[in-house]
């Protein structure tokens, strides 16, 4: 690795965002280091197939202060991107303590490790539109009041304010990106976009009849992960540390998602879905749509990939990846 390159450390590097970010930073001539858990599975590592040989993977646990301090000391990163979390909103109700430990407390561990190091490191925290929860105004921007509705969102709120606190108290270059929903072919199968796309394909193949869902009238602002990791990088290149909403400004319901995915395969979704009450959350968020005016004006960022193209890509990649199973 070249001595003159910027060094970036990514937590959650094997996830959807982490893998796209690693590829993007490599394209921009970074040395990239990625933290993976000891238990990271081969299927999760598949996201890194395009760049695994070009980055340095470090086994660590973001909840372990000693381990993280050691990583920060050894790597001396110019930029840290914290993308690791228990990020499934529904699962956070089943695992609230684990979600809090991974999603909230680990951020404090990293901020304190950076503060105590003798190297100037910029820090990016992956915040979320789920902070807005039961929304108090529409659309949502950096000044909208937060009203979280899940253990995941509450944990992210703690982390978000800890970033603000360390930035103000210690003059750290610490930033948060309040990212609205973003998807891709690398999205995990338990997320609704991937669940719907895969179900549409399997129904078209005759392998299943229906897809079971909860509230299909919930609306989200969905973009592509590739656009959002580009925004993460732009946030840390800004002249001053600050927080930014990244969004498309467009909203789609899960019903719209069904229509887009199924019609792409010449199917009528109305013939193939079942409402199952077990998929309703104890407290749900019905409507989110972001206002990214600040990111557009100060960073020059905006999304490039549209919703339909994103869903079609997810379907195409799944078909391609599973062709061998059909032969």
Describe the model.
The protein has 327 residues and is of the alpha/beta class. The strands form four sheets. Strands 3-2-1-4-5-6-11 form a seven-stranded parallel sheet, sandwiched between helices. It has a two-stranded parallel ribbon with strand order 7-10. Helix 5 runs parallel beside helix 6. The radius of gyration is 20 Å and the shape is globular. The relative contact order is 0.13.
Helix content: 40-55%
Task: Please tell me what the overall shape is.
Answer: globular
Query: Low-confidence spans: pLDDT under 50, at least 5 residues?
Result: none
Task: Say which CATH homologous superfamily of the largest domain is assigned.
Answer: NAD(P)-binding Rossmann-like Domain
Give the distance, in angstroms, between the N- and C-terminal Cα atoms: 43 Å
- Mean of all residue-level pLDDT scores: 92
> Which series of helices and strands comes N to C?
EHEHEHEHHEHEEHEEEHEEHEHHH
The whole-angstrom Rg is 20 Å
- Identify the CATH architecture of the largest domain: 3-Layer(aba) Sandwich
Strand content: 5-15%
Number of helices: 12
Structural domains: how many: 2
CATH class of the largest domain: Alpha Beta
State the assembly state of the protein chains. Answer: single chain
Which strand order do you get reading across the main beta sheet? Answer: 3-2-1-4-5-6-11
How is the main sheet built? 7 strands, parallel
CATH topology of the largest domain: Rossmann fold
- What structural category characterises the helix and strand content? alpha/beta
């Amino acid at each position: 690795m070249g001595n003159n390159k910027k060094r970036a450390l990514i937590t959650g590097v094997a996830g959807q965002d982490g893998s796209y970010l690693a590829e993007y930073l490599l394209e921009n001539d970074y040395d990239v280091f990625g933290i993976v858990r000891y238990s990271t599975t081969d299927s999760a590592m598949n996201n890194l197939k395009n760049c695994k040989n070009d980055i340095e993977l470090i086994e660590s646990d973001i909840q372990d202060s000693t381990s993280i301090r050691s990583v920060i000391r050894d790597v001396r990163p110019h930029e840290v991107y914290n993308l690791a979390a228990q990020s499934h909103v529904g699962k956070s109700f089943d695992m609230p303590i684990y979600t809090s430990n991974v999603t909230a407390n680990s951020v404090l561990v990293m901020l304190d490790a950076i503060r105590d190091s003798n190297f100037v490191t910029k820090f990016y925290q992956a915040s979320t539109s789920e902070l807005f929860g039961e929304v108090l105004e529409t659309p949502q921007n950096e000044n909208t009041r937060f009203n979280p509705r899940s253990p995941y969102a509450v944990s992210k709120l703690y982390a978000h304010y800890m970033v603000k606190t360390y930035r103000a108290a210690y003059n750290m270059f610490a930033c948060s990106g309040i990212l609205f929903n973003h998807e891709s072919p690398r999205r995990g199968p338990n997320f609704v976009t991937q669940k719907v796309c895969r179900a549409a394909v399997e129904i078209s193949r005759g392998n299943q009849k229906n897809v079971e869902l909860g509230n299909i009238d919930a609306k989200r602002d969905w973009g592509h992960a590739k656009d959002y990791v580009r925004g993460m990088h732009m946030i840390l290149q800004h002249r001053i540390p600050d927080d930014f909403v990244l969004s498309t400004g467009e909203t789609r319901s899960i019903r719209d998602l069904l229509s887009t995915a199924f019609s792409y395969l010449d199917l009528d979704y109305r013939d193939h879905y079942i409402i199952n009450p077990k998929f309703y959350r104890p407290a749900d968020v019905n409507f989110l749509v972001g206002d990214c005016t600040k990111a557009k004006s100060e960073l020059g960022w905006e999304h490039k990939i549209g919703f339909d193209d994103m869903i079609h890509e997810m379907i195409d990649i799944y078909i391609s990846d599973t062709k061998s199973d059909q032969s």
